[in-house]
Amino acid sequence: MRNDTAATPQAIFRKDYVAPGYWVDTVEMGFDLDLDATHVATRLTMRRNPDSAEKDLVLFGAELKTLQLRLNGVNLKKSAYTIDGETMRIPNAPDEVVLEIETLIKPSKNTSLSGLYASNGNFITQCEAEGFRKITWFPDRPDVMAKYTVVLRADKKKFPVLLGNGNLIEQGDLGDGRHFAKWEDPFKKPSYLFALVAGSLVCQEEKYKLGSGREVLLQVWVEKGNLDKTQHAMDSLKNSIRWDEERFGLELDLDRFMIVATSDFNMGAMENKGLNIFNTKYVLANPSIATDIDYAGIESVVGHEYFHNWTGNRVTCRDWFQLSLKEGLTVFRDQEFSADLVGTSTGRAVKRIEDVRVLRQVQFSEDAGPMAHPVRPDSFVEINNFYTVTIYEKGSEVVRMYYTLLGHDGFRKGMDLYFARHDGQAVECDDFRAAMSDANGRDLTQFERWYSQAGTPRVDVQTHYDAAAQTYEITLSQRCPATPGQPEKLPFHIPVAMGLLNSAGQDMPLHCEGYEAQAGVNSLVLELSAASQTFRFTQVIEQPVASLLRNFSAPVVLNISYSDEELGLLLAHDSDPFNRWEAGQRLATRRLVRLTKAVQAGEPLALDSMFIEALRATLNNDTLDPAFRELVLTLPSEAMIAEEFEVVDPQAIHTARQFARAQISQHLRADLLSAYEQHLTPGKFSPDAVSMAKRSLKNLALSYLLEWVDESTFELAKTQFYDAENMTDRLAALAGISNFRGQPQQQKEAAKALQHFYKEFKKEALVIDKWFMLQATAHTTDVAKVRELMTHKAFTLGNPNRARSLTFNFCNANPAQFHVADGSGYALWAELVIALNKINPQVAARLARSLDRWKKYPLHLQEKMHAALEKVAAAKKLSKDVAEVVTKALAA
C-alpha cells in the first residue's frame, strides 16, 4: 500500500476499522542523538486486546534500519515475523509482551520533515499523522495510548538543550562531553503526540500561577538571536491558559509548558503533549519584522495548540477519519478565544467575517472539486492529504452550529459531559455529538449528516407578505450538489439565525408560529430540517426586509433575491454586523460579475453611483469600527468572483476587479485621503485591536489611492515605505508601490524600494518570505519573473515557508498570470510538483491541489492543465501524497 503509484492508489476505509490486537501500557525510549546516525532503543510493555478481531501483533515502520528485535527477552528471527511495506506482523505472540527494539535513523537525510529530522543543526520531530513510525517500530495509530519515559543523550557542546514531552525528572553529565535528560509524561498519549527537541537554543521563561494557585513554568525556545521576538508568543500563551480556565474550566495539567520555534516545518504548529513545536512564522514577532496579520496569527495558533491539550490530547481520535473531532473543535475554540480577546461586539464580528472569508474562498471551492470529502471522511489514500480546510474550518462551523442551536450555557454543558465521559480516551465524532445531545436533552440524530455528507448546501429563499393579515412567510428549501461518491444527499439540520428590518432599518419584533416569542429579542434561530419548510410570522405591520443567516449561522450558500435598495438598507442599518458586511459583498459581487461579462463581450465598463455612494457612506461613518469599514470596502477576491461563473475567465475577472478599484479610487479620492490621514497611528507601535483597526483602514485607503495613476499618491506611499517604523505600514506601502502602474521612473523607484527592503532584511527569513510573497502576487509578475526569482540566492524549495512564499502564492493567488493562455504557468507547476515530490511529498501534494478544479476553465486551458497533470502522474517514484491528488483530479 505504501508503494502505490498514481495509476494504482489504494484507499483505506473507515468501515474497515478494527481495534488494535494489542494495547501498549508503557513506552521507554533511549536516544543517542547524532545528526547522521541516531540510535533508538525502545521497550514496549504490551497486552492483548481481548475485544479485537486482530490476532497478530502489528507494528508499523518506515525508512528504518532495524538493528535488533526482542520479544520477552528472546531475539526474534526473521522467520518469526513478516514485513509488507510499512507493516510488520508477529503471529502467535503471547498475551503479555515486552518488546525491545533497536533502530538506526538518519535525521540529516530526512527532508520530508516527518519523524526525527535536522533543522539548522538541531533535532526536531513531527509525528502527526504517521511520523513516529520513522523513529521506531510501533502500533502507530491514534487509538493506542501509552505512558512514555524518554532519555535523550547527546554531545553537550553541540546540543546543550534536550527537551521531551511532559516533565523533566532527571538530567546530568555522562562524561566524554555528553549529557542526558530524562523526561516523563504522566498522561497516556498516542504516538503522534511524541516529541523531542535537541540543539543550541535559548528561551524566554516565566512562572505562571494557575487559577487553582498551582505555579507552572512557561518557556518559549528559539534559536540564538531571536529572543527579542518571543514576548507576543509568551503573552498569547498566558492569555490562552487564562481563557481556557475561565471559559471552559480547563486547567494546564503539567508542571511546565514549552513552545519551540523552528524554520523547517510543514505545518503551522504541533500540539505534542507539553512540548509544542511551531513554525517560526507563528512565534517570532516584533514591530520591525511582523505585521498585524502576523501578530493575530501568532495569537490564534498559540491558542489553538494550547487548547489541543484537552481537545485532542486528553481526549483524542479513535482513528484518523475522526480528525475533525479534535481539529474542528479546536479551531472553534481558537476563533472564540481571539474574538473574546477583542472584547467588543464589532470586534467579534470582524473576526467572524475574516474566518468566513477563508471558509468561502477556500473550503467552498474544495467542496466543489474532486477532493471534496465529508468532515468525517469515509476513505483516504494518504492521511496527510486530509489536513484540509474541510476538516478544520468546516469542522469548526459544525461545532459552531452546536453552539448556535444549544446556546452558550447548553454548549458548555455538552463540553463538560464530553470530558467527564471521555477523558483519557480515543473516541469518535459521534461521541461528541452524543455528549451535546444528552447534556441538553436534544435529538441531534439528523445533525450527523454534517459529518457524513460532503458538499456545501444551497438554501433557496422565497418570501411572501400579506399586508391585510399582517403575516410574513419565509420558505426555505435546501439542496446539496453531488460530490465524488455521493450523488444524492439527505436534508441537513441547518440553523438559520434571522431578523426582520422595517423600512427605517430597525429590527422588528418577531412572532413566529411554533417558536416562543421573547420580549426584546430581535433575532431568532429557525431550524431547517426538511427539504423545504415555511416559517410564518404574525403581527408584521409593514413589508419587512429579511436579514437571514445572521453571524453566518451555517456553512451554506444562501440564495435570496434582494433588490439593490434592500441590500443598501441592510448595509446601512442591519443590527447584525456580519449581514451588514454581507450586504456590501452582495452589492459588489453583482457589479463585478456584470463587469466581467462586459469585459468578455468587449462592452464599455461602468460602475454605478449607487454603489459608489454606499461605499462612501460606509467609509465616512465614524460610528463604525475602522476594521469593519475596511472589510466592507474590500472587494470580493478574484477567487470569489470566479465561483459565480460556470466557466472561469481569470483575465476578464482581473480586468473587471481592477477597473472597479480604479473607479472607487477616482470617485472617492478625497474621502480616501481623509480616511488615510485620520487613521494614522503615530508613536510607539502597538498590536492592540484599536491600533490594528486604524492601520487596516489607512492602508486599504492607500491601496485604493494607488489605483489612480497620480504622482502625489505614489510619493505618499514611498514616504510611508521609507519612514515607517513598523512592518505593517512598510509592507503595505511596498505592495502598493510594486503594483503601481505609473511612468518608467516610478517603476524604477519601485524596483529600488524592493532591493532596499531585501538588503535591510536579508538576515530575517520570515521577512524575506514576505518579500517573495509580495512579488509572487504582484499583477506584473509573470511566469518568467517567477523563474527568475527562483534563481535568487535566497530561494530554496527545501524550506516549506520559502517554497510557499513564491511558488504557492503565484499558483494560487495570482490567477490572471498563472492561467495564461500559453500554458506556461501549468508547465512551471508540473516542474515544481515533481521537484518537491522528491524532497517533501506533503508540501508537493499541497501545491498539486492548485489544478484540482481544472475542468472549471475554458477548453483551451483545460487541455494544457490536463497535460500538466498527466506529466506529474507519469513521474517516477511519485509519492502517495501527490498520486492521490492528481489521480482524483484526472478522474473528475
TrEMBL record:
All copies of domain Peptidase M1 membrane alanine aminopeptidase, residue ranges: 233-450
Catalyzed reactions: Release of an N-terminal amino acid, Xaa-|-Yaa- from a peptide, amide or arylamide. Xaa is preferably Ala, but may be most amino acids including Pro (slow action). When a terminal hydrophobic residue is followed by a prolyl residue, the two may be released as an intact Xaa-Pro dipeptide
GO molecular function: alanyl aminopeptidase activity; metallopeptidase activity; zinc ion binding
Swiss-Prot/TrEMBL cofactor(s): Zn(2+)
Superkingdom of the organism of origin: Bacteria
InterPro entries referenced in this protein's UniProt entry, alphabetically: Aminopeptidase_N-like_N, Aminopeptidase_N-like_N_sf, PepN_Ig-like_sf, Peptidase_M1, Peptidase_M1_dom, Peptidase_M1_pepN, Peptidase_M1_pepN_C, Peptidase_M1_pepN_C_sf
One family name in Pfam for this protein: DUF3458_C
Domain Aminopeptidase N-like N-terminal: 32-193
Peptidase M1 alanyl aminopeptidase Ig-like fold domain location: 455-559
Domain Peptidase M1 alanyl aminopeptidase C-terminal: from-to ranges: 564-891
Top-level enzyme category: hydrolase
Entry EC number(s): 3.4.11.2
Keywords, ordered alphabetically: Aminopeptidase, Hydrolase, Metal-binding, Metalloprotease, Protease, Zinc
GO BP annotations listed: proteolysis
Keyword NAD (UniProt): no
Described purpose of this protein according to its UniProt entry: Aminopeptidase N is involved in the degradation of intracellular peptides generated by protein breakdown during normal growth as well as in response to nutrient starvation.
Family according to the record: Belongs to the peptidase M1 family.
Protein name: Aminopeptidase N
Lineage start: Bacteria, Pseudomonadati, Pseudomonadota, Betaproteobacteria, Burkholderiales
Gene behind the chain: pepN
